[in-house]
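Question (not urgent): is this output format expected?
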Amino acid sequence: MEKIILIKYGELSTKKANINFFLKTLKDNVERSLKTEDVTVNYDKGRMFVSLNKDNFDLVVEKLKKVFGIHEIVIGYKIEDTDLNAIKSHLLTLAQEKEFKTFKVETKRSDKTYHLNSMEISRTLGAHLLKNIEGLKVDVHNPELNINVELRKNACIIYFERYEGIGGYPVGTLGKGLLMLSGGIDSPVAGYLAIKRGVKLEGIYFESPPHTSVAAKNKVMDLASKLAVYNNDFKLHVINFTEIQEAIFKNIPHEYLITIMRRMMYRISAIIAKNNRGHILVNGESIGQVASQTLTSMEVINSVVNIPVIRPVACFDKTEIIKLAKEIDTYETSILPFEDCCTIFVPEHPVINPEKIKCEEYEKLIPWEELIYKAIKNHEVIKVSDKKEQYNELL
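Got this back:
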């Protein structure tokens, strides 16, 4: 009898013709997540199996909880025998190690040629436990111990412990996107939600030294490292936005500063995305939250690019975004008091219903195409990894 980890797919099971691609990608992501552990990963269309060569089940489970595409994680016991007497014997041994008074046996039988159906197997195994362990009772509604039995073609798996996965699609199955990552609360949450749908992300950060500090940049790199836990790794494109931002501030009516600035950021982001085979931009805009996130502003700003812009938190309120930020451990980093490009040079009364024609006229006042080309040509690329993973590799 071998102690193993069983992975259930959930949403992936709805895939038909391309399920092998999704499962192969999930296997690759699982192996990458567990690269510092001594494990072997195998799979079929129903389940994925992780065999461990040392007793580090808790650590492996915690890592698997951060792998998208997993519906449920189970610690189970694999019996290389489907004979009912062998299953009864092993189940009794396992049950005698646990403390419980009420139980329920649930059987799933993927091998439909087996001589008993699922209900008959459950009744037989339950009767065996009642006969051999004193004081037990069956409770099908609220048992102290749920006993799960999966009968496969050449093996049987028994398990009691199950852990919820984070679902979604395996990272990379839906292509690549570019996350506009600021130092705020919203954009890391938006990135997490995009990764959950199978999008492999790179990030773009706009710095404006000396108006923004090195601490602000380090804060964004910390946020990128937290997203790298889910994204497998994270490439961050850092754009020096100082010349563009100063040109906007000196030459353009101040009520339009934010609108024009965002249009420039969108143009740069779209070029960086396309140069790196990205199909979409992702950002943390939430409808109505600030002046640049009214529907009119979004329309005018969005008009400078033809790449799709995905806004995963567009219909979330701030409370919902903060709740998720705390769950994914980005909130405390996001609220550190370091200003970014979006919080400096903020006008007292920014326009909330900008006009596209005015934007185009104002942009003629600055050599924006030349400035954008220069910023892209000289931008910095930083490869960010999960800090915990880096630390583990030093142990």
